[in-house]
Every structure is written in C-alpha cells, then in structure tokens.
Amino acid sequence: MGRTLQNTMINLGLQNACDEAVYQLGLDMEELEEIEEDAGLGNGGLGRLAACFLDSMATLGLAAYGYGIRYEYGIFNQKIRDGWQVEEADDWLRHGNPWEKARPEYMLPVHFYGRVEHSATGAKWIDTQVVLALPYDTPVPGYMNNTVNTMRLWSARAPNDFNLRDFNVGDYIQAVLDRNLAENISRVLYPNDNFFEGKELRLKQEYFVVAATLQDIIRRFKASKFGSTDTVRTVFDSFPDQVAIQLNDTHPAMAIPELMRIFVDIEKLPWDKAWDLTKRTFAYTNHTVLPEALERWPVDLVEKLLPRHLQIIYEINQRHLDHIASLFPNDVDRLRRMSLIEEGGTKRINMAHLCIVGSHAVNGVAKIHSEIVKTQVFEDFAELEPEKFQNKTNGITPRRWLLLCNPGLAELIAEKIGEDYVRDLSQLTKLHEFVDDDLFIREVAKVKQENKVKFALYLEKEYKVKINPSSMFDVHVKRIHEYKRQLMNCLHIITMYNRIRRDPTKLFVPRTVIIGGKAAPGYHMAKMIIKLINAVAQVVNNDPTVGSKLKVIFLENYRVSLAEKVIPATDLSEQISTAGTEASGTGNMKFMLNGALTIGTMDGANVEMAEEAGEENLFIFGMRVEDVTELDRKGYNAQLYYDRLPELKQAVDQIKSGFFSPKEPNLFNDVVNMLFHHDRFKVFADYEAYVKCQEKVSELYLNSKAWTKMVIRNIAAAGKFSSDRTIKEYARDIWHVEPSDLKIPAPNEPRDAAQDKTPNGTAA
C-alpha cells in the first residue's frame, strides 16, 4: 500500500489546505511525509495491483472490501553491504499505525487440525485448535467523491484458554508463552515473488485469511435486510447476486472448499445447490505462467491441517472427473491432465485447477497473457468452457502514480485539457493536439528536467555519487528475477563500458543506469545478480576514462515510496522480460504515464502499450512469443551467440575472468555457468537486438525535441492503463455491478434522499 498520508489528502481534496496549515506551524509537509513508514504487505506487482484496485473501486463508488493479513513484519528492508543484499525485519508498526482501527467486536474463530466425524446428520470437524482473527480496518477514500471503503486486515490472536483447557498439568507460564505459536500466523510476509514455497505456516496464513473473511462476508449477508422478511436471513439463493469474491491468484484458493464446508456442513445445503452458489460467487485471476510459481500443496499437509477441506476437494475432483469422463470416454490422459490431484511422487493439489473448476470466470491480466492461459497453460479447461476465460488488462491508479508522485506534470496536463482526466484517463488522448506545440514540448521537457535534478540530489545524498542530471536516466526497477533479465541490462552496461574504453574520444550519450529491486532471500541466483551489478558499478564508477559518461547505481530497498521518487525522473524504462513470461507488468504503465520512453520486448502489457501509442513510439526489440517457442523446439544453444558476437564474448569473459571481482576471480562462476547451460530465459538470444535497440535510444536522446514529442505521444496513449478502466471491466463482465459516479454528500451537508446510493447490487 505504501504511505497513506499524501494519498488521503489528495483524494479528500485537502492537500493545499494541509500544506498551508503545516507551513504556518513552521513545518514542511514533505519532511513530515518522509517520516511515515511504507505499508509493505505484499511482494511486487500482484500486491501493488490490489492497492491500485482498492483506490479505483472507491473512486468508482463500488461497495467493495479488500481483505488480507495484517503482517507484523512486511516485506524485508533491503540493505546492500559490500555489494550483497542483506535482509532486515520490516518493523513497520514500531511507532504504531494511525490509519488503522482495531475492531475486536468482529473477532472470529478460525479452526486448524482436528479430525472429521461422519454421521447421519453430516460431517463434523472436531477436536480442532482455534486461533482468533482480529480485524483491523483501514479507510480507503475515493477521489473527491466522499466515498470511503474499507480494507480489513486480519491479525492472529490466541484464545485466552489457549493451552490451558486440555491435559494441562499446571505449567501455566509455558502455556502463556505458547500463545506465540498461534499468533505467529500473522507475524511475517513470505518474501517470494513468482515462486511457490510449500511451508505449513504459509498454508496456515492462506486458510486463516480465507476462513475469517468468509465468516465476515456471511455475517454481513445474513444481517442485511435485502430480499428477506426475516431479521436473520437463512436462505442463500440470492448469495451470488449479493456477493462477488475475486481470488487474487491462487493464494486464497482454499476459499472454495471453505465456502462449500459452510454451505454443506453448517448451513446443511445439498451439495449440488452449494456448488452452484459457490461457482457463481467466485472468480479467479491468474497472475503468472511460470511453473515454479504455481501452488501445488502436498495432500498429506492439507490432510493434517484441514482434514475436512481435503475430503471436500476430493469430492469436487470426483464429480469434475466424472463429468470429463462422460464427455471424453477412455481419454485417461486428459483425466490425468485435468485432475485437481497430481499423482506421481508426493500427491499434490493443483490450486489453479481448483480455482478454475470452482469459479464462473477466469482471467489473465494482459491480452497476450490471457491468450497463453487459454491456449497453453490451461488449454484443456478452455476447450471445455471457452466462455469462462476472459482478459482484464491491468492498470494503475492515476491518483498515486501521477497526481501524487508527479504534481508538475499533472498540473501541466490540467492546464491543457482540464482536470477531469484524473477520473477519466482516456481524456489524455486530447494531448495529441499539442504534440507539435513548441511551448508545450519545452514545458514537458522542463518538468522532466526538474524531476531529474531533484532525484539526482536525492541520489547524491544517499549514495555519495555525483550524478549528471543531463545524462539519460535509464531505469530498471522491479523484483530481481531471472525472467526479468536484469542480467541482460548488466551485459549492456559492460558493453557500453568497453566501448568507452576502446575509444574515449568517440561521442557517447551519457547515461545514469539505475537498477533496483529485492531478491527473495532464498533465491541464490537473484542475489548473485545483485552482487554482479554492484561489482560492475564499482569498476565503472571509479574508472577515470569513463568520467561522467556512464554511472551505475543499484537502488537500495526499492519500495512504493521510492518508486514515487524515481519514476517521475526516468527517461528510459526497461521492460525486457523474455516474451511470454511477464504476465502484464504495471511498472511499465507507471513509467509511460510519467513521461519515460520504453525499451521492451513484446511481452505482457508492453504489447498493448505499443498498440495504443504506435509501435514506432516504443523501442521494441527481440524475440516474440513464437520465436521463443521455435527456439525451444530447435534447442537453445547459448554458445552459438557467444561465439558469433565479439562484444558479448568480451563482456562474458570479463565476468568469468574476475575483471569485476579481482579478489575472487571465480565469484560469478554460477552466473556464467547458468547463462551457458541452463538459461531458461535466453539472455544471449536477445542480447544483440537489445544492444542495437539501445543505440537507437541514444541516437534519439541527442535530439531533445524529437525525444520529447515521442514522450508526449506516449503520455497521450496511456489512458487505457488506468485501473479505473480495469475495474469497470471487472464490474461489468464478472461482478455484474454498476459503478456510480454520484458524489455522496459530505457529512456536513444535508443528505438529499434522491441522491442516496440505493443499497442494491453486489458487494465485491
């Protein structure tokens, strides 16, 4: 979620008033804002997407709740020591959190372990361990519409009789100390992005958030007076018409068997009725196609922790497979491929398959990704129910990612086209009229230059390196992962360095290359990549031949509040994943909206950015998905490229020989060995096209006016990538709710009955 103060002031239309009031107290608002800790309760794009969605849902007047876990420790703070990433605990609640309100009156029990007893009246889950879920509410204000939604985060608490009720022979002290075991559930965020780690505590977290949330939803459903004469509602027929639940990846997939358990075991609905209601309630968003990221929980772990849920999953699977067998008799291989249970070795539950079978809609997050989901990853399911599969291209909130982080540009745009674009970003197309307006071109360039000077000052303060603010700011910030190919960027840096040294008098367009992002603590290769970037930076930044022509900076502890500083100052945005691996990306959109040009592959939302702005207004290079597929068919041989490309060979040899690590010549052996023998993401295959494309970038940068005109064309085409547009599509195609642009009267205004929002429609 990042910081809340400035976002709240902007959405409430109070920023200028607050700035002025604070100034009159002899304080500086910006200094105050820097004191607030980021709420870093997610890992990367998926978590930040949820935050943008909350902002858009409130701005569109949807009755929507965001549910999650109130981690005591969020994503780790990254320190760089001697070029290596070191993790520190993110004690973000140390000074308290003024934005949250504990709601002990809505505390709920969550059950674990135990056993299942079957009887004539149905199944009973008994002898369980209970953990209490305590909700904390954070307000989510819409933009200038007086709507305030809720983000409800659950914290784990041990019940007061924890460890004191059974066979306790009087070790009272130990029993109280053991309360920590229960409360550890909400202690810390697992720091993996695009990687599945099948740990028991993680499964406990996933079920904890799901069980608490579903009880909360059902309590609210039963209490609402809708379509019911009873004070408490017991008929669930209207449940899917009143409630829509969107599963953000498979992490909350246990919600499907949990809702079935509530309907069948507790509310005593017949299975078929319960299943119909469940399917109509849930929709699933897929966020990745990387096999190592797909959640596959061992059956024996689920059996121990959630025995009743395993039985329900088996029953869902049996009925699912019976249906497939009736349509495709004797096709045992299809049954194996489509089963929720994977046999062979340890039996596992494929959570994506559970989500597809248990949802009425499945979507990818960019056109190309949704195609891959349909035709490759889940092709058997798409063949069965093609109408279930959709696309919903991701977006970003223009409030945080333009108004808040880039007020200079936001104001410049408002001067030209008015202020309405903040709520309707498609209006940015009006900027096309000004693409040849010399004054506007100069003003856009001036805002960018001011942002660069400000960020250069920040860098010089934090990193003690002198930055040339007229150099091209070439920025690559995102989680560190092999598929995102920070290594390819690194090879380009080395290539530029070698070119400068080969001919120091030759014209070279000066660059400041900024790379930032966190590596999962257990991801060895990602940590080696960080060390390599820092080792290269050490050499490049201290070579007098290079001077101010080339500087390399690794941005420490990349997070939302740092993104808000670097993105408005960026000239060139690096979006260079291997085609077919980045589901969408959202950083790409933030850079586009903030006046950076993109160098990128035809992957994720880059494809649609090129479609909107015209491919000639992005620097697109490299293999397309078809080329990657073809290369896989032939077999990728890295050696071929190494032998054919002298500059690539030189760069790789320097890494291999210890040119960048003279004290430890073999330091990067693992990296080099990976690049030659098991590089799934084919860095060498795109290297040549990447370097050539970078030469075109440098050439255009020399012509400031032509560069800025291309920037304006990009900003004018960025309207599609508002999360407001994304959420309108979810609302229309999946949740079946109507956004409302009614401004609720402020609390101090009289309420006009006619203007009151009628309380019908789904709560998402």
Automatic annotation (TrEMBL):
<keyword id="KW-0021">Allosteric enzyme</keyword>
<dbReference type="GO" id="GO:0005980">
    <property type="term" value="P:glycogen catabolic process"/>
</dbReference>
<feature type="region of interest" description="Disordered">
    <location>
        <begin position="741"/>
        <end position="764"/>
    </location>
</feature>
<dbReference type="Pfam" id="PF00343">
    <property type="entry name" value="Phosphorylase"/>
</dbReference>
<dbReference type="InterPro" id="IPR000811">
    <property type="entry name" value="Glyco_trans_35"/>
</dbReference>
<keyword id="KW-0663">Pyridoxal phosphate</keyword>
<keyword id="KW-0597">Phosphoprotein</keyword>
<dbReference type="GO" id="GO:0008184">
    <property type="term" value="F:glycogen phosphorylase activity"/>
</dbReference>
<feature type="modified residue" description="N6-(pyridoxal phosphate)lysine">
    <location>
        <position position="590"/>
    </location>
</feature>
<keyword id="KW-0808">Transferase</keyword>
<comment type="subunit">
    <text>Homodimer; enzymatically active. Interacts with PPP1R3B; recruits the phosphatase PP1 which dephosphorylates and inactivates PYGL/glycogen phosphorylase.</text>
</comment>
<dbReference type="InterPro" id="IPR011833">
    <property type="entry name" value="Glycg_phsphrylas"/>
</dbReference>
<protein>
    <recommendedName>
        <fullName>Alpha-1,4 glucan phosphorylase</fullName>
        <ecNumber>2.4.1.1</ecNumber>
    </recommendedName>
</protein>
<keyword id="KW-0119">Carbohydrate metabolism</keyword>
<keyword id="KW-0328">Glycosyltransferase</keyword>
<comment type="function">
    <text>Allosteric enzyme that catalyzes the rate-limiting step in glycogen catabolism, the phosphorolytic cleavage of glycogen to produce glucose-1-phosphate, and plays a central role in maintaining cellular and organismal glucose homeostasis.</text>
</comment>
<keyword id="KW-0321">Glycogen metabolism</keyword>
<dbReference type="GO" id="GO:0030170">
    <property type="term" value="F:pyridoxal phosphate binding"/>
</dbReference>
<dbReference type="GO" id="GO:0005737">
    <property type="term" value="C:cytoplasm"/>
</dbReference>
<comment type="similarity">
    <text>Belongs to the glycogen phosphorylase family.</text>
</comment>
<dbReference type="InterPro" id="IPR035090">
    <property type="entry name" value="Pyridoxal_P_attach_site"/>
</dbReference>
